[in-house]
Amino acid sequence: MSKRIQKKSVLLASLAVGLACGSAFAATQHSGMVLRDRAGVAITPATKNNAFSMQGTCSFCHNGTTMNTKTPPTALKTYAQIEQHNFHAQLGANEFRGFNPYNPDSTDAWRAGAAAPGKSWVQSPGHFGSW
Amino acid sequence: MARTYLDGGAPIYDTAAAKSNDPAFTSFTPFDFTTGFTKKADNSVAGEMRDCGECHVGGGFMQYYTSSVTTPVDASAKKFQYDPANRTDYRDANFGASVNTFNTFIDIFGLDGLGFELLNHQGVARDLNPASPTYVGPTYAAKKNDFVQTGALEMDCLMCHLDGYSWDKRRDAVRVGNFDSSRVAGAGLGTPIQNTYSAAKNVVYNNNVVLAGGNLTLDANFAAKIVAQPKSSNCASCHQAEYQVDWKKRGEIWKSGSEVHYGIGCMACHERKTGAVVGTTGVVTEAALGQCDPAKGATSPFDAMWNPLDGVAFKKCEDCHTPATTPTWTTYGAPNAVQAHGAAGLNAILLQAPGVKNGVATKSHIDIIDCTACHTKNKAGITGGAFVDGTGTDLQGRVALHDVPFVGKDMSNGMALHWLGGKLYSANLLTSFFWRDMNDYNYDANQDGRPGGMDALLPSHVAKINFDNGQLKALAADGIINTAEITARQALLTANIAAQTGVPIPLKSDAVTPNFSPRISMLTVPFKGTHNIAPADVAWGKNGCTDCHGANKGFYNGAYPINGNLAWTFGPNQLATFTKVNGKMDATEGHPNIMDKHGKRSVAFQLFNPAPAGADLGVLRNIDRSEVIYEPTFKAQNTALTTFTATAITGGAAAGITNSSADGGVSTKGHILKIDVKPTAASPDTAIVSRTWAVNAECTTIAQVITAMGVFATDANAFGFIITDGGAGNIVITPTGTNVIRINAAATDFGPFGLGAAAFVAAPQTGVITQLPYAGRATWVTYLDSITEANSGIGVKPFANFSTAASVDKDPRAPGVQVFTGTVLPLVANVAKPGVVTYNWTLTERTGLVDNPATLTTDEAFLVTPLPSGINSTVTFATPGVKIIELKTVDAEGNLSRKTQEINVIDVPANVIAWTDNAGVNAGTLDLVNLPVANNKIKIMWGDGNYEYVTTNTAASVLAKAHTYSTPGSKFVQVYVYMSGVQKGYFNKTITVAP
After folding, report:
1. 3-class SS at A111?
2. pLDDT tens for residues A41-61?
3. Domain termination residue (choose one: B200, B223, B246)
4. Contact status of B203 with chain A (Cβ, < 8 Å)
5. How many domains does chain B have?
6. B 221-240 residues with CB < 8 A to A
7. pLDDT tens sequence across B393-428
8. What is the pTM of this model?
9. Does B59 lie at the interface with A, CB-CB under 8 angstroms?
10. Partner residues linked to B840 by β-bridges
């Protein structure tokens, strides 16, 4: 993609965001939304067989600076802000303890609790590192 | 199982402090399995992407792994430091030659991701002959995941936010590692080009929804289906639909016509309350919901994940149905439940608080029973999970069977109760069963580094052995499990497990028999049932007390369908009890976190007799619901756990640490003894130091155990106690110096050390209605069954009334009741009504007049004194005058009735009248002494119809007056004293005139 086309894409996307982001979700908000790769580069007919990246696509607007239209307006959270503070995404990754975690003397109630004894493979309260 | 990092591992025991410390993470180097991956691992993180990834939304550990350490290293007890900034996207990772959980998985789904399904996505028969060159099924080989080829499972926003998202299409893509293209498939934006491990990022977009101009853009109609608030159907894809993965826990719980909230959708309750702060750090201690976190319900120890978010900004039932203040959130016109609960008697104070066993009610049903317990009354035709069968694969290739009718049940009778924090919650009891090795002595059957603990076999090992022997599936796959089947599987496992672990099975002392004993073990977990909310007209209790109270009603009692749709029979030595709870004292199939009401003991229950008599006689019991909430014998912590003592704690015979046996497979290693110590009895709790020791040797005598303890037992490190051999197969723990000790209640294995009797004592529970003690579940349930409206007094108003003993009236001829000062007056209330009634008494006395400056008046002042409460009370009057006794009766529903009675209190009269009888003449002399002065006239009524006035000197306090009666006998003599016409005193006495 040429620099000229890239700039145009950004301009159009910004315009779309300005018109639509932040109001109640409606067709106009995501209509015409450009599919992008992980780096945020638009997928074109030349790259049409590449799967789009949710991170790169959504982050184009959900970037921490684009304002929504709420009163008062607030910045749309970034993909990272949403992903890293999200119990559906983490499922124990941010509560990881390690292999063979049982410790009857731990101040960590989970390590000292009933979930850990004898089950060395249970390495977090969620799915991560366990079953 | 797959160890994640080289860091971590077991805690490190500090002998000098007798304490284990959590290991620190210093590098976050992925644990390298090298060539042993299939021996030690089964479901790695890379494996979870293909398996659990069917529901996991992506992001988190599906996209990133923690790859570096935060500096400085956390010096706190929680040594793992999560920091999103320290993560690396798998697509950017360079694992080199490392074979680790992030980049390696075991092939359980096969080349096309369809496991053992007979037909592929096009309906064509699959080649499932392992000997065929075109075989497409599982190989159970370790395979590397090349993230450059597969992409990564980014958080897929549309999985929740796209109306019509295809869970199936996404599942099919992740099964074959088409991670990048799974997003296209799930959203319906196109189709993955290759259903293989490679080139998984290539797709063909659907021109109807993706417009190819200068860039690929979304069609307006498609974009309109992207919604801010997820549709219930998106939630149901993972959580509620029949046979979806969460179905096994809670059943099919979101159906029109069954869930009263169906019309307002999941997010009506799970939307957060207004004004909630949005969290962004990802640090688990930040108790703020993230941008896309649905508000979730309260903590359950069986779903312990990001607990600081439990209940945050969540709209609980009471927030809409019984709000204390005007809600600032949408309540969707929720009907207020207070009146209906009151009419049903559910607000009546008839229940005891957690920790209370003396029969004194301070709580109502509403206080003790969660809303959902009564309102999740499921209906016929709704299904839920009964079992997870871990003995083999399902058709999809997953290494457990958990989503077919044979492991399910009809939920019309499928709910039970369990205690959480002293409150009853509804639950589906889900039982998982799996293979274990009973030899916990010298064979590490799952290669987790520890031979102990009755190792659970790795599911991938079991699956591979099944596969190699005729592609056997999970035992429950055909709906029947019998003795012969189990025996055959046991033989297969024994013959083939060593090939999977890479470690030969040790032989028993006969040098012939493998010391490997595969058994099926099962664990029952109560998963909260908080959905499928029934409307009030079909909720438990709608028809009164006997809706629940009565034999086999199905609320707290009655047979629970543990077996579901599965038929079980088994023989001796085929099943093994899951574990022992309460300090390894009570055998159970229940999760150790299933606690009693008081939160101090686990409720143990068993699903089967582990040693059935004869062959093929064993069956699983459909246990009574009450077994999950009440212990067979009610017990409480004994003083050895609750009170520091300066005297020795003496154990009983410690059978649990004297049975080490190589052949039997029983190990003494691992039992924990933890002792809390304070320097003196007066020391504050902040001075408590705990000392811990785990048995680290195979022992057959107490002496060997104490020897193995080393300095832990000798006080050489000034721990504050010594441990000695009591001489009767028991241990004795004696505090030294001024130290005081107790046994640590949370961590100690009382049973193996013979400390059971020291730890727990029988503690009957007194019934509120009968005020009788009950020793355990059986008698307690009988008591609960007997409760009715009539004997609990529900719906009956109290009527207050009381009496005093008639004999206390000291002047029956005077109006009212005359009572002397200083005497104890019994007060006896009538029974106001059946059931629980409180009787409260007060004494009101006039204390004089007081000026009221505000009103410029002079008012009467009264003193109100509470008297002892209860149906029987007493009062003692200190001063004479008119007193008011009031009785207030209040029943369990708060209904009040009162009764008052005036009492005239008089001083005890002086001893004024005496009669000196002249025997035989019906005459004598009346001697009056201590007469009030001044007086100038005395009236004497002789009790024979005659009276006379006597004029006196004003200063006279004595008078003698003779009188002759016409007949002998008892005479009631009355004396009135006057001064200038004003009465100064009155006295009477019954005298006897001798014949």
Report:
1. helix
2. 999 999 999 999 999 999 999
3. B223
4. yes
5. 5
6. 221, 223-224, 226-228
7. 999 999 999 989 999 999 988 999 999 999 999 999
8. 0.88
9. yes
10. B888
